[in-house]
């Protein structure tokens, strides 16, 4: 086995996936959107009828469905929106926050940089640079889904 192949195999064998790989968080990221919205006081936890799921929401000319578009959630509070994992609620909150404010929270939560953990090979952020984020990317971040 040549040295370069040995090195490659050793690196593969000792690769720490928890440190070196990245994962898309999926709907769990709606909690981050909710946290930012609560902190900015653009939403309340239990305000009845604060949101209304009609089964979809339009972003940049594209209609994004709620996962339960066939029987929309209707009137719901933020808590209910979280319980229902309702896409329109969190896309709407992302739109209200706007890209700059949303990115301020991503920075505060530490999602835009490495943690600095003392282990080799830590992956970097998987978020786009703020200046490259438009309404579609903001929508994706708000619910962490590339729908
Ligand atoms: Zn819904």
Describe this protein's structure.
The chain has about 150 residues and is mainly alpha-helical. The protein has a single domain (about 25-145), classed as Beta-lactamase (3-Layer(aba) Sandwich), CATH 3.40.710.10. It is built from 6 helices and 4 strands; from the N terminus they run αααββββααα. The protein has helices spanning about 5-15, 15-20, 30-40, 80-85, 85-110, 135-145; strands spanning about 50-55, 55-60, 60-65, 75. The strands form 2 sheets. It has a two-stranded antiparallel sheet with strand order 1-4. A two-stranded antiparallel sheet has the order 2-3. A hairpin with a 2-residue loop joins strand 2 and strand 3. Helix 3 (about 30-40) packs across helix 5 (about 85-110) and helix 5 (about 85-110) packs across helix 6 (about 135-145). The longest helix has 23 residues, at about 85-110. It binds zinc ion. Zinc ion binds near residues 68, 72, 73, 84 and 86.
Question: Quick recap of the structure?
Answer:
With 147 residues, the protein is mainly α. It contains 6 helices and 4 strands; from the N terminus they run H-H-H-E-E-E-E-H-H-H.
Q: What is this structure's SSE topology?
A:
Elements: H1 3-13, H2 17-20, H3 30-39, E1 51-53, E2 56-59, E3 62-65, E4 74-76, H4 78-84, H5 87-109, H6 135-143
Antiparallel strand pairs: 1-4, 2-3
Helix pairs in contact: 3-5, 5-6
CATH superfamily: DD-peptidase/beta-lactamase superfamily
Could you say which overall geometry the principal axes of the C-alpha atoms support? elongated
Q: Which stretches are low in confidence, meaning pLDDT under 50 for 5 or more residues running?
A: none
Number of strands: 4
Count the domains. 1
